[in-house]
Design a protein that fits this description.
Arc Repressor Mutant, subunit A, homodimer, elongated, mainly alpha, binds iron/sulfur cluster, DNA-binding
Chain lengths: 143, 143
DNA sequence: TTTATTTAAGACTTTATACTCTTAAATCTA
DNA sequence: TAGATTTAAGAGTATAAAGTCTTAAATAAA
């Protein structure tokens, strides 16, 4: 469904959003990796993409790190997925056909197309802000 | 979402079901591969799994090939996916957590869990028979 | 200005998936 | 029985994803 790089990216963004709600500092990637039990090396690589795509702002040197480059209500899970994995999940055919036309659809199009649409809407509608509120509301949330 | 091996498997099973509606012969893997524009070698490997799991019956020698081992109404897309890819798509966490309890869920569980359930039902409910009927009904179906 | 800290970038290694080929076994037909 | 056909099984190769490491650049603080 999603690559591990993408899953890690989402978890990191949630962590950043949660932390940023309180303090507006840059958060070091090492801290994020440690707290989420991820490889620092791997996470660094992943977050670089989000920086390039304008979802994170980064700063080097002591007290450096990353922070959200936009209001958390303006960053959706779709944005993160698109940045890391591309839009294949939302556009590709369930049977793997390269070209897909509604004129000559495959045998499961009627079943798959609406589901794919639901998936798109789900991720598009879910913002870091909403997730952050969910975390505040509940007690036992795994990060 | 699905591996290419799994997509190929589904396409092959649809092809077999469609053909078997008319004649009850064994269908050679070479014929399937040619018609679906797939590698004979790769497809052979993939279909072996479906044979082992009891969804296909195979026969060697001239006029040999494969045929459905069950009524096409008894083979769902879920069965095929399970046989080739395993059940990861239907059980795994969207954030990649190994263990997942409803007691301490992740921040997107409330959104993801129902969607995963829908996906499961969709594939579980869609049988080769239903797909075959869809193909008969429509004119321009890509195989 | 020197040293420590932190991200950026690219090379590199490992692992998993995708794909190919060869040989063996089963079966039909001449 | 000999030869052709077709799947089975396993080895082998190629490509992509995952993960690691090294060096450079930016910055802060001593
Ligand atoms: S029409 Fe069929 S082939 Fe095309 S995207 Fe839809 S499901 Fe896939
Ligand atoms: S509770 Fe969260 S971590 Fe567990 S499966 Fe659901 S979405 Fe994934």
């Amino acid at each position: 469904m999603l690559t591990t790089a993408c899953k890690d990216a989402i978890r990191a963004m949630i962590y950043i959003a949660k932390k940023q709600k309180n303090i507006d500092n840059f958060i070091s990637i090492k801290e994020i990796a440690n707290n989420l039990d991820l490889s620092f090396y791997f996470l660094s690589k992943i977050l670089q993409k989000l920086v390039k795509d304008g979802f994170l702002e980064s700063y080097r040197g002591p007290n450096g790190g990353v922070k959200l480059a936009k209001p958390m209500g303006d960053i959706s899970l779709y944005d993160i997925i698109l940045s890391i994995d591309g839009d294949d999940v939302f556009t590709q055919c369930i049977l793997g056909f390269k070209e897909c036309s509604d004129i000559k659809p495959c045998a499961v199009h009627e079943k798959w197309a609406p589901e794919r649409e639901r998936l798109y809407n789900l991720f598009k509608d879910t913002t870091l802000e909403e997730i952050e509120e969910e975390i505040e509301k509940k007690i036992n949330i795994k990060l």
